[in-house]
């Protein structure tokens, strides 16, 4: 059998594909060759991904993305025949849809936002000898379908947010240092519009394959303004993203996901507490959920009401090509999620 990115396999062939010698078959079958299908090295030995707690076998034998990441290679090396780029993108894509709620400084203590969101996250190898990966993700969030009255005057418009996150990471399956750094961008259509940017980082030490202790933070890169004016009179308010400093503990559940709890503070002394987790649902879906709560300064005051910030998100993730067990075991699965209102927290100075 031929090996490499793409190989043809006749139905009459009896040779099996194992996790040790995975073969990616053209999934489109639109040439004159034999009928084909996409194979991920799921032999009888590896199909259940049985041992995700072993540090000796990163990826648990789940096929090309886990055991042979170099077979996909860097993006510039993807084959352009027989739908190669599409298969490569779908193979590592995480497509999600869900619901959310949040409240922050721009709501002036007078509005809570509920809505729905959709997006994707994608990671892949950079092509270097150190196992560094890159990630790119997008999230669109739609809220306030019945309008809002933050200024005391009813506004029938809904709120639409667009998040983009891209950066580099290095994921560890055994003991050692794991890290990630991404650039986050937000375009928020809310009383005018504001564009915010931040740098988000994570660095942790893994003890074995399951326990992990580390730091994640967010650092403002730019500010903007909202316009709370009514009619022809402009009332401009500066807005910025908060600097965040947190410590976290993450627990891996092998092929069954992971959970994390974190706590810390903002650059202006507010306390921050949060939880997030990822669990499998069936064979090709995952459930991601979490919350973040930023405590206001002062227990009871109008300013504390304005500064109180919280966000809650729940998402159903679809892995369109491979199963969730193999996705969880992929060393090039993005370390950081796409930004949302839990990780990019706004502040009116």
Structural description of this entry:
- Helix content is 7%, strand content 43%.
- The protein has 349 residues and is mainly beta.
- It has one domain (95-347): monomeric porin ompg (Porin, Beta Barrel), CATH 2.40.160.
- A 12-stranded antiparallel beta barrel has the order 1-2-3-4-5-6-7-9-10-11-12-13.
- It is globular, with a radius of gyration of 23 Å.
- The model is unreliable at 1-72 (pLDDT under 50).
Describe this structure in a few short sentences:
By secondary structure, the chain is mostly beta strands. The chain has helices spanning 64-67, 84-92, 302-307, 324-328; strands at residues 93-103, 113-125, 133-143, 159-170, 176-189, 193-207, 211-227, 236-241, 244-252, 258-266, 271-281, 285-294, 309-318, 346-347.
What proportion of the residues form beta strands (DSSP E)? Answer: 35-45%
Give the rounded overall mean pLDDT. 79
SSE pattern: HHEEEEEEEEEEEEHEHE
Total helical elements = 4
Largest sheet: 12 strands, antiparallel, barrel
Which CATH architecture?
Beta Barrel
Q: What's the CATH class label?
A: Mainly Beta
Low-confidence stretches: 1-72
- The side-by-side strand order for the widest beta sheet comes to 1-2-3-4-5-6-7-9-10-11-12-13
| Termini gap | 64 Å
Q: Determine the structural class based on helices, strands and strand pairing.
A: mainly beta
Q: Count all strands and give the number.
A: 14
Task: Give the name of the CATH superfamily.
Answer: monomeric porin ompg
Total count of domains: 1
Gyration radius over CA: 23 Å
Q: Bin the helical content.
A: under 10%
Query: In one word, what is the shape?
Result: globular
- CATH fold descriptor: Porin
């Amino acid at each position: 059998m031929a090996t490499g990115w793409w190989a043809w396999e006749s139905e009459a062939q009896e040779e099996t594909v194992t996790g040790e010698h995975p073969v990616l078959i053209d999934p489109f079958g639109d040439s004159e060759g034999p009928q084909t299908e996409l194979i991920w090295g799921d032999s009888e030995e590896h199909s259940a991904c049985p041992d995700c707690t072993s540090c000796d076998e990163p990826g648990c034998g789940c096929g090309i993305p886990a055991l042979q990441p170099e077979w996909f290679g860097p993006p510039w090396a993807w084959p352009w025949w027989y739908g190669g780029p599409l298969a490569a993108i779908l193979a590592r894509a995480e497509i999600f849809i869900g619901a959310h709620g949040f409240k922050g400084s721009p709501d002036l203590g007078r509005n809570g936002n509920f809505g729905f969101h959709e997006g994707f996250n994608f990671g892949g190898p950079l092509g270097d000898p150190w196992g560094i990966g890159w990630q790119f993700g997008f999230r669109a969030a739609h809220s306030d379908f019945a309008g809002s009255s933050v200024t005391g005057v009813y506004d029938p418009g809904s709120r639409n947010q667009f998040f983009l996150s891209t950066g580099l990471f290095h994921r560890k399956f055994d003991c050692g240092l794991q890290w990630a750094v991404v650039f986050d961008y937000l375009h928020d259509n809310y009383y005018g519009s504001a564009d915010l940017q931040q740098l988000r980082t994570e660095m942790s030490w893994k003890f074995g394959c399951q326990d992990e202790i580390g730091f994640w933070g967010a650092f403002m890169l730019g500010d903007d303004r909202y316009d709370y004016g009514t009619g022809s009179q402009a009332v401009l308010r500066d807005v910025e993203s908060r600097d965040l400093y947190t410590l976290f503990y993450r627990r891996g559940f092998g092929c069954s996901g992971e959970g994390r709890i974190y706590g810390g503070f903002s650059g202006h002394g507010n306390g921050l507490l949060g939880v997030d987790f990822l669990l499998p649902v069936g064979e090709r879906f995952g459930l991601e959920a979490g919350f973040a709560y930023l405590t206001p300064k002062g227990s009871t005051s109008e300013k504390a009401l304005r500064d109180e910030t919280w966000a809650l998100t729940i998402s159903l993730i679809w892995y369109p090509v491979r199963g969730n067990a193999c996705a969880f075991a992929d060393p090039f699965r993005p370390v950081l999620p796409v930004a949302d209102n839990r990780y990019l927290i706004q502040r009116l100075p």
